[in-house]
Design a protein that fits this description.
Rossmann fold; four-stranded antiparallel β-sheet; binds magnesium ion; binds adenosine-5'-triphosphate; alpha/beta
């Protein structure tokens, strides 16, 4: 681990991202600096187009930056090959999307079990199912374990997606507008689960444009026009 990032779990330095489109280049991130300590619950707060999803996709290794460096848990992501990055994401990053992205043909429990094959820690089907049930129980939806996603509510689907993100004991959770497709009461209930996870020590980066939801985090980091504008704490 380098000196600059010691103590920090997630460290972005001068990260840029340029998308090439037919209409020309779009600078989605213009030198983003961000440091997140272990156990922090950070809300990445900014208006539509500010660069929230772009940043989430970079810290989860779904996409690569155009410039700058990203170091997570002592690992520089730019040093990893595509294959290594995919494996790193499967083991270290828990990702939650607005649209849940559950497999419709699998039960809720099976969706939570799916990433476990990847990490090789929960090997037998029995161990995987027991782990899935305990994660679903922690999210208070164990009764839904054997139903398919289509047969549970939107808020329950998102809780299944959070349980899936936790399946491999990731070193952090990144959630991109995880309540964006939910009503406000359900959204608050989902954020309450993030608050609970954070209190238990899970590091969380939550992208949102909703100030009420952002206020539930332990720190709000504001992003504007591809730059982190909130001054970083000393
Ligand atoms: N795949 C892409 N190709 C080209 N431009 C993109 C792509 N993805 C995002 N952009 C552009 O990059 C900028 C940042 O987009 P991003 O999706 O990161 O914003 P956001 O903060 O997540 O917005 P929202 O709140 O609407 O989800 C925008 O100008 C957007 O149009
Ligand atoms: Mg977005």
């Amino acid at each position: 681990m380098s000196d600059r990032s010691s103590g920090a779990l997630i460290c972005l330095r001068q990260v840029t991202k340029v998308y090439r489109t037919f209409a020309g280049a779009v600078e989605a991130l213009r030198g983003a600096d961000l440091t997140i300590e272990t156990g922090e619950f950070v809300a990445l707060f900014g208006r539509s187009g500010a660069g929230k999803s772009t940043l989430i996709n970079l810290v989860t290794g779904i996409d690569r930056p155009s410039g700058g460096s990203i170091e997570i848990g002592g690992q520089r992501l730019e040093a990893l090959s595509e294959e290594q990055l995919t494996r790193w994401r499967g083991r270290k990053a828990g990702v939650v999307f607005q649209s849940f992205q559950l497999m419709p043909t699998l039960t809720c429990a099976q969706n939570v079990m799916l990433p476990m094959d990847f990490a090789g820690r929960y090997v037998t089907p029995q161990a995987q199912y027991a782990r899935a049930r305990s994660l679903l129980e922690a999210l208070e939806i164990e009764e839904q374990a054997d139903k398919r996603p289509a047969d549970v509510s939107g808020g329950q689907r998102q809780r299944v997606a959070i349980a899936r993100a936790l399946a491999n004991d990731p070193i952090f959770i990144a959630a991109d507008e995880p309540t964006g497709s939910l009503d406000s009461v359900t959204a608050q209930a989902i954020v309450a689960h993030f608050v609970k996870l954070a209190a238990a020590g899970t590091t969380i980066l939550l992208a949102t444009h909703d100030p009420e939801l952002a206020a539930r985090a332990t720190r709000i980091v504001r992003i504007e026009d591809g730059r982190i504008v909130e001054p970083e704490r000393p």
